Every structure is written in C-alpha cells, then in structure tokens.
Amino acid sequence: MSDSLQNPQVDGRKQGHLGYLAFVMLCFFAASSAPTPLYHVYQQAWGFSSALLTLIFAVYALSLLGTLLVFGSLSDYLGRRPVIFVALLLESVSMLLFMGAGDVGWLIAARILQGIATGIATSALGAAMLDTNQNQGPLINSIAPIFGMALGALGTSVLVEFAPMPLLLAYALLLAAFVAQAVYLLRVGETVTPQPGVLKTLRPTLFVPQRARGTLLLVLPADIAAWALGGFFLSLAPSLLAAATGSTSVINGGLAVAALTISGAVSILNLRLRAPQLALLVGCSFLAVGVSVILLAVNLGWLWLFFTGAVVAGIGFGASFLGALRLLLPLAHAHERAGLMSAFLALSYLAFCVPSLIAGLAVKTEGLIVTTNVYGSMVVVLALLALAGLLVQRAGKANAA
C-alpha cells in the first residue's frame, strides 16, 4: 500500500511542497524577465546602444549557462534544500543591486549574479519537483518558467506605467517573495540522500545519460529555435516594436513577452496529456508559422499582427519545450536528473543568449528591421528542419511496424 493511501496527510504535504517549488521557480523566471520592459527606459535615460542592451541580457544567460555547467549536478550530491537556499540568497542580493542601479555597470553586475542564482536554482528545483511527483513534475518544469517570464514582463510593464517608483517597485516585490521563500524552505523535506563525490562534479561538463543522447539530438533543433526566439523577445522586443510601429508604450514590450509566453503556457496545458512526439510536431509547425507572421507584421508596421504572430509562435514555444522535456527527463534515474536537466537547460540557454547577442551587434550596421528579418528566417528554417526530422522518424517507425 502506498504512503499516500496509508496516510493522506503525506500526499497533501507532498502536493503543498510541489506547489511551493513551482512558485519558487516561477519567481526566479519572473525576475529574469522583469528588466525587459525597463530596458528601453534604461536605454533612454543612460543613452547606451542596442548592442550594449543585448549584452546586459546576454550576461545573465551566459552566467546562468556557466553555472549550470559547473554546478548543475550539485543538488544530486548535497541535497536539494541547501542548494535552493543558496540560490534564493544570491537572487535576493541581485534584486538589491537592481534597486540600487545608477548606471549600466550596476545592471550588468545584477544580471550576472541573477544568472548565477538562477543557474544554481533551476536544476535543483526541477529535480526536486521530479522527486516529489514524477507525473506532474515534467509539466510544472515546463509551465512554471514560461508563465514566470510572462508574469515578470507584464507585471513590471504595468507597474512602470501606473505605479510609483517604476525602477524600484517590481524588484522590491520580488525581493520580498524570495526572502519569504527562503524562510518557508525550512519546512520542506529533503528529497534525495546526500552522497560523496561532489568535488568531481564541479568540472564544466554536459552530463547526458547514454540512453538519452539520441533523443536529445532529435529534440535539439526545435529547442534551439524556441529559445532563440525567446531570447530575441526578452532582449529586443520593446525596441523592435518602437522601431517597426512607432509605439513607445512600455506596456507593449511587456505584452509582447506575455503574448509569447502565456500562449506557450496554454499550449502546454492543452498538450500535457498527449504524446510528447505530438507536442513536438505542434511546436515546430506553430513556431514556423508564428515567426513568419511576426516578420510580416514587422515589415508592414502592424502592431495587432505582431501580437497575433507572437501568440502563434508562443504556442510553438510551449509545445516544443514540453515535448522535449517529456521525452528526455524520464530517461534519467533519480541521481541523474539534475545533471540531465542542467545539460538540457545549458543547451537551451546557449540558444537563448548567443543568437540575440549576435543580433544586438548586427543592429549597429544592419539596423533593427533587417536584423529581425534575418534572425526570424533562421528560426523558421530551424523549426522546419526539426519538423522534417520528426516526420522522417515517424515514417521510419511506421515502416518498421
């Protein structure tokens, strides 16, 4: 008889802890997108270029990537709780740096520390959710980051437009959430037994179990397309909307990110019970169509069409991420989960930051519209290549049967 049948309080406590872990991850990703609507405000106040703007964004993703490579498996050895606690403390300090920012140097320092904190937290939180519930864990691992990014971008843009202290309030609210979460962590039980050998894991590495490598190669093109699009939105969408449509409202930047991410969360909810291969097929198809619509909107200067394309592309973003996670994560054993999660997220964040950083540099010479056309076309090509690979695999299985 299971523990939950013997004692219903055990199951209720696990569900409560799962909800807590999901909320912590949501807040980390809300914090990651909170500066996006403010980038244009910072840029106008301090007069820096689009290349420097994407650098501010990219240092976050690069520091997150480096942290995942070095510390991604840490919680498999030290336990989930101490790793999550350290991440919450570092994230709280990064919020204080944002609140005190007076120039670009402060923003870069805050983003680097935030990237380190998020890198430490992400694999530990993801693995802890899988430990707590292997059925709902992959779903929450998919939906919490996406919904968090929507909440951070849209919430900050609304606060900037309608609330006092536009450069302080969002960070202050997030700081309060992280401090409260660090206190509540004392009530959450540990889900893995600490084991020796932690120093051996502190070498930069991408750990992928042998049985998961073929699947990773299959899902990687779709994952790169999705995260490259996300990186572009989180770094350059507010500036792009201003350049393409003439709109300077801060809310439009937040709405652009929210349109992409909320539709992604909705697609995850709708596809969560379907086969992961179907989710990937939907993801690749909608990514290609949605980005094509976005490019049309940018060249025509139509704001409503841009948001329409963002919603369609967001469906593809969410479906691709869900399908990839649901195919990959069950292939890892308990003490391999954080390592596989960190490897997958490291590759995702590489796609998240490097293309957008290159785009920021290209804006200097080619302009924002031309850069967007080239960038978007590459995302469409990647999505179509991934779709072709999935269809070929499906046809091969059908012939073998």
UniProtKB/TrEMBL annotation:
Organism classification: Bacteria, Pseudomonadati, Pseudomonadota, Gammaproteobacteria, Pseudomonadales
UniProt domain Major facilitator superfamily (MFS) profile: residue ranges: 1-401
Pfam families reported in the protein's UniProt record: MFS_1 (PF07690)
Keywords, sorted A to Z: Cell membrane, Membrane, Transmembrane, Transmembrane helix, Transport
Keyword Chaperone in annotation: no
Membrane topology: Multi-pass membrane protein
Domain of life: Bacteria
Official protein name in the record: Predicted arabinose efflux permease, MFS family
One GO location term (cellular component): plasma membrane
Location(s) in or outside the cell: Cell membrane
PANTHER family the record matches: MAJOR FACILITATOR SUPERFAMILY MFS_1, RESISTANCE PROTEIN MDTM, PUTATIVE-RELATED-RELATED
A GO molecular-function descriptor: transmembrane transporter activity
Sequence intervals crossing the membrane: 20-42, 48-71, 83-102, 108-130, 142-162, 168-186, 216-237, 249-271, 278-298, 304-328, 340-362, 374-392
The keyword Membrane is assigned to this record: yes
